[in-house]
Amino acid sequence: MESRRTAMKLAVAGALGISGSGLAANAAKKDDAKFKPAADRDGPRWRTGIEGQRIADLGDGRFLNPVLSGDYPDPSVLKDGDDYYMTHSSFDSAPGLLIWHSRDLVNWRPLGPALAKPLGTVFAVDIAKHDGRYFIYIPFMKAPWSTDLPSFANTFVIHAPSMEGPWSDPIDLKVGGLIDPGHVVGEDGHRYLFFNDGKRVRLTADGLATDGPVETAYQAWRYPDDWITEAYSPEGPKLFRRGDYFYLVNAVGGTSGPATGHMIVAARSRSIHGPWENCPHNPIQRTHSRQEMWWSRGHATCVEGPGGQWYMVYHGYENGYHTLGRQTLVEPIEWTPDGWFRATGGDLSEPLRKPRGPAQPHGMAHSDSFHTDRLGTLWNLYGSAPAETARIAIGDGALTLKAKGKGPSDGVVLTQQVGDRSYEVSVELELTDKTSGGLLLFFDDRLFLGMGIDGHRMTTWRGGKASYWPEPAPPARRIFMRITNQEQVVTFYYSLDGKNWTRHGVRSEVTGYNANTVDNLLSLRPALYAAGEGEVLFRNFTYRALA
């Protein structure tokens, strides 16, 4: 499948500026810092929750990032009284836009998906509330199966009376070629969407159509040319009003690539119409050295937390664990006497004081007995048209996938996100008719690994293709499979009875299964697949984090 990041770069081609060599002098002093993973340092480690999953809340008034571990990029956060709601780019997952709820910005519980039928690949969205109604503004990128979208990027909106839904079908705003909408109400009372590359359009009062042309409204701050970044790529505008000013927070420097690329910058204006003044101490936050724990930090939403303390919620890659994707981070900010804000969390490798709000149980179980439908909350269909969900049936202790294609690259693939450095997954599967199926760790349709059976032999998948390795597994139409990922070293196991396990003859090191390898902003995820003609039944999927 064609990379969405390639499409995104075309959108901002006029603004791209690949940087040269060397870091800025003010960052060089940090280059010699020594990185040690949080779990290896003296002092607090992450607490564990459901199934041993790591959680940020340390239980002593502090928290240790990430607040959402795993591939939860481009966070958009809405403060609604004492409640906070958040969603993320869901890309090629269907259903999409899983909504999370919190009272303290650290402990989050899933509510459910807002987008039952994505019209294309979902890039960074914005959540808004206006006149008692909730809105999510969505850029749909043209995918191979989304033939009806007129542009490579298309802005739509969905709305609901509650963040728990029901959400409307997507409404076309007829804005093409732009990404990352950011909603704001101006001092003139009108509603606006800001986009990447400094663009803006006015909305109608109901927020469901445009009310004027797309225009250039601002120019994002530009960093020195000798900083090591991926590309200039001004994107992700998030706007809010505080006191006499509107604040516009942008991401620049590219979303992946070099560790020091992605960054957070800010501007302000007394009017939504400008002129916009760049913050004198931009960037607000960035990674200064590849030795730091969190890389490519950017795409921030600023939000007032419980008790009046302000925070930035953004994403970053965990050093050494790019396979987990861009994870959600929370950092406190402070307001300066001259009305700007500064980041105060440092490199986020140490615990921070937890926001005051009440905690709630965090996260969700990743094991599934398939007695209830958790599609869109736990499981997502990969890279498929909305009608393809008809291939999935869940209930009575079984997940049934109606097969298609020849293998994981073009078959039915169901994935779930994980956020632990080490974990184990297992499942029982049974074939019907002329099918094949199996258990994978899946990045995208070009990059995955795992095991599959067709009733005659076992196929070993590595590097997104069938391996030369002829694993001598017995022919079977019913088998148990297990995969462990122990700090990027992956081992396969199989069993005919679920009790006596055979270790697969090949192990894999999977550090390279990441966005910088295949130019796609996703993560390595446990997955189930079905290919051929007929159905594959899965039972008793189990997950546990490993120490």
UniProtKB/TrEMBL annotation:
Gene3D superfamilies: 2.60.120.200, Glycosyl hydrolase domain, family 43. SUPFAM superfamilies: Arabinanase/levansucrase/invertase, Concanavalin A-like lectins/glucanases. InterPro entries: ConA-like_dom_sf, GH43_C2, Glyco_hydro_43, Glyco_hydro_beta-prop_sf, Glycosyl_Hydrlase_43, TAT_signal. PROSITE patterns: TAT (PS51318). The record marks 180 as: Important for catalytic activity, responsible for pKa modulation of the active site Glu and correct orientation of both the proton donor and substrate. The keyword Isomerase does not apply. GO terms for molecular function: hydrolase activity, hydrolyzing O-glycosyl compounds. One of its GO terms (biological process) is carbohydrate metabolic process. It comes from the Bacteria. Residues 367-509 form the Beta-xylosidase C-terminal Concanavalin A-like domain. Keywords: Glycosidase, Hydrolase, Signal. Belongs to the glycosyl hydrolase 43 family. PANTHER family: BETA-XYLOSIDASE (PTHR42812), XYLOSIDASE_ARABINOSIDASE (PTHR42812:SF2). This is Glycoside hydrolase, family 43. The lineage of its organism: Bacteria, Pseudomonadati, Pseudomonadota, Alphaproteobacteria, Sphingomonadales.
